[in-house]
Structure to design on (354 residues):
């Protein structure tokens, strides 16, 4: 993956005495790298060499897989590029380690790279002297290890198991949740393109997350009694009251998920734009955006699906029903966007039929 580091972090000014000390030339570093320390050159880990002035003097080939414009890295002030990724506290600690030693002039920690166009990256960062035998090293190796995928896999596997457990109870098909993920993702991509103030929250992370979390909307049904969940025919008032609890139960179950979007979707996917939904009768923008998107995706799919109590409704009639409920059930602005992507919804349904 490729990341542009565009945001700068204000750090205290570079200390004078350090600025005045002699710069290590790129040639000198090249010389060191071509000797016994050459593994850094060919390492699969992105490696930077920085000097005591915290200027980047070398970036290895692997950097181009992580950083856009990596050829321009040499010469840049390290914290102009990475300050924000570390945060002010760690940035100070790193500077202190390099200038004053401590822990063998070494630092280990994590950084977080983030732009609107790219999914967040979590990286372990190791900083240590290029030459270990110096009492006051002049150059430092900065080694990056991207652990985003392993972290994501581990986190998501726990919640996928939970989803599997809830599917054993719910009578909706497994394909339903795959489709709801796909519609929600496609919808968010469209909103990302529109951007602007209304959709400023939508970035690459939002799209990635909703494409996984939309499926969790009914996970709270794990707590709904089977005789209510599977009842043929209309539910009584109190049965409906129990049924509606699945939103709160879902939010409770997903409250440990690090991104609040999980909870928002579970809690608010039955809210309506006009305030007639449940569980809290939220209105308009009070309903989280992710939930408003999933609501349209979920209803479209529920209309298309054949269920024991209803036949499948075709695409044209289904989208017509959604248009008719613009401003009542659904966010009217989102329905306007939906009008441009109905064909994609149809394709997603057709490609993932039950
Ligand atoms: Fe639901
Ligand atoms: Fe659903």
């Amino acid at each position: 993956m490729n990341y542009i580091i565009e945001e700068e972090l204000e750090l205290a000014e570079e200390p004078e005495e350090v600025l005045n000390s002699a710069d290590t030339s790129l040639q000198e570093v090249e010389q060191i790298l071509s000797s016994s320390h050459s593994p850094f050159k060919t390492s699969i880990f992105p490696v930077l060499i920085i000097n005591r002035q915290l200027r980047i003097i070398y970036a290895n080939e692997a950097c181009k897989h992580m950083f856009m414009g990596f050829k321009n890295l040499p010469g840049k002030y390290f914290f102009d590029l990475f300050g924000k990724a570390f945060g002010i506290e760690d940035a100070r600690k790193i500077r202190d380690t390099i200038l004053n030693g401590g822990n063998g002039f070494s630092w280990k920690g994590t950084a977080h790279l983030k732009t609107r166009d790219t999914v967040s990256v979590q990286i372990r960062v190791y900083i240590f002297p290029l030459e270990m035998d110096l009492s006051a090293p002049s150059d430092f190796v900065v080694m990056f290890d991207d652990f985003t995928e392993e972290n994501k896999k581990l986190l998501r596997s726990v919640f996928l198991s939970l989803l599997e457990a809830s599917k054993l109870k719910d009578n909706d098909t497994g394909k339903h949740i795959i489709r709801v993920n796909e519609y929600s993702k496609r919808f968010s991509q469209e909103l990302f393109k529109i951007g602007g103030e209304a959709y400023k929250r939508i970035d690459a992370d939002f799209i990635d997350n909703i494409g996984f979390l939309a499926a969790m909307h009914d996970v709270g049904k794990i707590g709904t009694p089977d005789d209510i969940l599977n009842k043929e025919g209309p539910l009584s008032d109190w049965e409906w009251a129990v049924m509606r609890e699945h939103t709160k139960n879902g939010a409770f179950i997903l409250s440990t998920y690090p991104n609040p979007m999980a909870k928002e979707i579970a809690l608010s996917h039955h809210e309506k734009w006009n305030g007639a939904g449940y569980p809290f009768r939220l209105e308009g923008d009070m309903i989280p955006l992710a939930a408003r998107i999933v609501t349209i995706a979920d209803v479209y799919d529920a209309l298309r699906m054949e269920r024991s109590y209803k036949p499948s409704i075709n695409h044209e009639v289904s989208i017509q029903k959604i248009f008719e409920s613009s401003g009542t059930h659904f966010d009217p602005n989102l329905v306007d966007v939906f009008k441009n992507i109905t064909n994609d919804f149809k394709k997603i349904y057709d490609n993932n039929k039950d």
Q: What stands out?
A: The mean pLDDT is 88. The two ends are 34 Å apart (CA to CA). Residues 217-218, 246, 269-270 surround fe (ii) ion (ligand 1) (CB under 6 Å). Residues 45 and 278 are 50 Å apart (CA to CA).
